[in-house]
Design brief:
The protein contains 27 helices and 26 strands. By secondary structure, it is an alpha/beta fold. It has four domains: 131 residues, Rossmann fold; 131 residues, PAS domain (Beta-Lactamase, 2-Layer Sandwich); 157 residues, 2-Layer Sandwich (Alpha-Beta Plaits); 260 residues, Alpha-Beta Barrel (TIM Barrel), CATH 3.20.20. Helix 2 runs parallel beside helix 3 and helix 15 packs across helix 16. The chain starts with 6 loop residues before the first strand and ends in a 13-residue tail after the last helix.
Length: 718
């Protein structure tokens, strides 16, 4: 719980952040004032009424550093906690040196902020308590000894030879030595061997005044006793030393007595700096170097290669199919896979090579001191072979591969950024050519890479510029000569390429995370179209939309479908969801739950491209499936003169035995139509009856074949 009426001043130029801070801290019992102008903050601080200042370093007019300097110069009794958008090591260290009590990076976890506030208030209480004690004992003859022995610092006095003549009790807490154990011993007894030369003129200081030792860092060795203080497990104590010479007599006739020193434990501070430094240069998930450290090592490697006439290779690595694993099995499994892949790749490298993670599923390798580009090719093959081995995670066997692009210094570029870019371009070339391989950069790849980026940018603009449209292909019941459904097929009206089919852009949309927005647009547009057809009295019994694995991953997919239907006042029974078998087997438990919810609301569930994936009677029984769509590849393989039974015979028999509706896709010929009818497969979809049509033409076809029309569409008589 917070201190009663502890007063906090929050300073930030983001009003929303300030309001959220006020709400959070007020609930915890703090008295909170917020200021979004640094000049007003200085006016508030001059009142001296605030216990803690929560400060953003980047402020207009007067920045956070100036505010902290003002607090220090005016000796305002307010502790500062910096909340900064900068997470670099230098920013944190700079804030601490300016007097900040603590440092947090944005975005922060609320519980973490509350914990830091509690710690800071605890320190204030301790200081207040110490001040009260000091005031009570100020006129007491025991004041000096009490302050020395209760000081959080190690205080000592050395004689002229550097032997201890006094140490306070704090030395036992910090180093494990009882005060009497050190009396008469030389100061080097507790100084680490590596720092003894530095300690000679600091720990045993002779100078006084401004020339005395201040803020000098040394390492002391603990006694190594166990179960006394937790710091002993480190065996090394980092201290900040203040020391001055002790003299008697007047200025012209002084006699040196020894040295008076204060050693402050800064081990926690050093460890915090080490953690900040590590986080600034390493990827926290895999423990690998990050982009900053990689670029430092690359710069050094290029300098050495230039001096010694070596070559240096950059390998840009992207894990194929990782996004599917991450999106279907969850981030926990995805993170495990990234760590496992990093370990596998690391085992393929030499000690002097560097493997770094740039983010997501992108890695980069620095191969130093190679003699020939083929040395890099050999390493690339080893990495590909290692990643193609199955990964066993949470009792799942996962298979991935990688696409690797390679650029070589000085053959392909002589600057760090250009080398990395060229390796990235080569990697995209591998992706474009089928993945699971490696390629060296060649200049002709630049044009393809530019085209890829341009295509990606156009795809991102397609939504905002309303370039997507829907074509509708009818499903015919040949017994009743009626349209019993429509399939909504996404198309992209590209300004230059014309009408682009989904196979050309859906994989890219999934790769760049745009598929969810496209699917939402498709659902809304389809719902609006059903509404219009209902109003016109020509709506088909249902309209089907294809959903991908990434769509069904979202926990709110049911609401994403139902909400547009409610808005357009479309009965859910008019809507159908089509999914492939591969989507089901990847995560059947969560898929079953979401499909059951959709079916509960009356939405039809169909299996698309049935027979091309993991066909299984098991999931047909588990899921609320009403329709099987026979893949066009099986329809294409129909030969009326063939006597033996085929896969399509088995699919039809399976569907009929389970009382499922069968829809044959891709019916192109009269022979295919007749063959299917002979086997009681009555519902068909394909160009023999109608190609996919724009909404207006699809509406005209629906009007011709609506249930109350005496006419029959001529196309059905073929």
């Amino acid at each position: 719980m917070a201190d009663e009426k502890a007063r906090i001043l929050a300073v930030d130029d983001d009003p929303r952040l300030l309001e959220s801070l006020r709400e959070l801290l007020s609930l915890e019992g703090y008295e909170v004032s917020i200021v979004d102008d640094s000049r007003k903050a200085i006016q508030q601080l001059q009142t001296g009424r605030f216990d803690i200042l929560l400060l953003d370093m980047k402020m207009p007019h007067v920045d956070g550093r100036q505010i902290m300097q003002f607090v220090a110069d005016k000796q305002i009794p307010t502790d500062v906690i910096v909340i900064s958008g900068e997470s670099s090591f230098n920013s944190a260290v700079d804030a601490m040196r300016l007097g900040a009590h603590d440092f947090l990076t944005k975005p922060y976890v609320p519980n973490q902020l509350l914990k830091r506030l509690e710690n800071t208030l605890a320190h204030r209480r301790l200081r207040k308590h110490n001040l009260e004690i000091k005031n009570r004992l100020e006129h007491s003859e025991k004041l000096y000894r009490f302050l020395v022995n209760t000081s959080p610092d190690f205080i000592y006095i050395l004689d002229q030879k550097g032997n201890f003549v006094f140490v306070n009790k704090r030395v036992q807490d910090l180093l494990g030595h009882a005060p009497k154990e050190l009396l008469g011993k030389h100061y080097t007894t507790i100084v680490c061997d590596q720092d003894r030369e530095d300690a000679k003129y600091a720990f045993n200081e002779r100078r006084t005044g401004e020339r005395a030792t201040r803020n000098f860092e040394l390492r002391l060795c603990t006694k190594g006793l166990e179960n006394i203080k937790k710091s002993f497990s480190h065996r090394i104590l980092n201290i900040e030393l203040y020391a001055t010479g002790l003299y008697t007599g007047k200025e012209n006739d002084r006699h040196r007595l020894g040295t008076y020193g204060v050693a402050r434990d800064v081990s926690e501070k050093k460890r915090a700096e080490a953690v900040i430094h590590y986080q600034a240069y390493h990827d926290l998930l895999t423990g690998l170097p990050n982009r900053a450290l990689f670029k430092d090592r690359l710069k050094m490697s290029l300098a050495q290669a230039n001096r010694n006439e070596y070559k240096t290779a950059i390998m840009f690595i992207d894990l194929d199919r990782f996004k599917i694993v991450n999106d279907t099995l969850g981030h926990k499994v995805g993170d495990q896979l990234l760590r496992a892949a990093a370990r596998s790749m690391q085992r393929c490298l030499r000690a002097e090579d560097t493997l770094a993670r740039l983010g997501g599923d992108e890695f980069v390798v620095l191969l130093s001191k190679i003699k020939h580009p083929q040395d890099a090719a050999q390493v690339a093959r080893k990495i590909l072979d290692a990643l193609e081995q199955p990964f066993i995670l949470d009792e799942r066997e996962l298979l991935i591969s990688a696409s690797i692009g390679i650029s070589v210094y000085p053959d392909d570029a002589d600057e760090e950024e250009e080398l990395i870019k060229n390796a990235d371009v080569a990697m995209y070339s591998v992706k474009h050519d089928g993945k699971g391989n490696f390629a060296f950069y060649v200049k002709s790849m630049d044009a393809n890479f530019s085209e890829h980026l341009e295509f990606e940018m156009r795809l991102r603009r397609a939504l905002t510029e309303d370039e997507f449209c829907i074509y509708y292909q009818p499903q015919f019941d040949l017994y009743n000569q009626r349209i019993i459904g429509m399939e909504a097929l996404l198309r992209w009206r590209h300004p230059e390429l014309g009408l682009v089919l989904p196979g050309a852009f859906i994989p890219l949309a999934e790769e760049i995370g745009l598929i969810t927005q496209i699917t939402r647009w498709l659902i809304r547009a389809a719902a609006k179209q059903i509404h219009q057809w209902l109003e016109a009295g020509i709506a088909p019994p249902h309209l089907a939309i294809n959903f991908s694995a990434l769509d069904l991953k979202h926990s709110d997919i049911v609401e994403q479908i139902l909400h547009p239907l409610r808005e357009q006042k479309v009965p859910p029974e008019r809507f159908a969801v089509e999914i492939t078998e591969n989507v089901i087997v990847k995560d059947i438990d969560s898929v079953a739950q979401r499909l059951s919810s959709l079916a509960h609301h009356g939405i039809d569930i169909a299996i698309d491209d049935f027979g091309t994936g993991y066909s299984s009677l098991g999931y047909l029984h588990q899921l609320p499936i009403k329709t099987l769509k026979i893949d066009r590849s099986f329809v294409f393989d129909i030969h009326p003169e063939r006597k033996e039974r085929t896969v399509i015979d088995a699919i039809i028999a399976m569907g009929q035995s389970l009382d499922l509706k069968l829809v044959a896709e891709g019916v192109e010929t009269q022979a295919q139509r007749d063959w299917l009818l002979q086997r009681n497969c009555r519902v068909m979809q394909g160009n023999l009856f109608s190609a996919p049509l724009p909404a207006e033409e699809a509406g005209k076809l629906l009007a011709l074949t609506r249930n109350d029309s005496p006419e029959q569409t001529p196309i059905l008589s073929k």
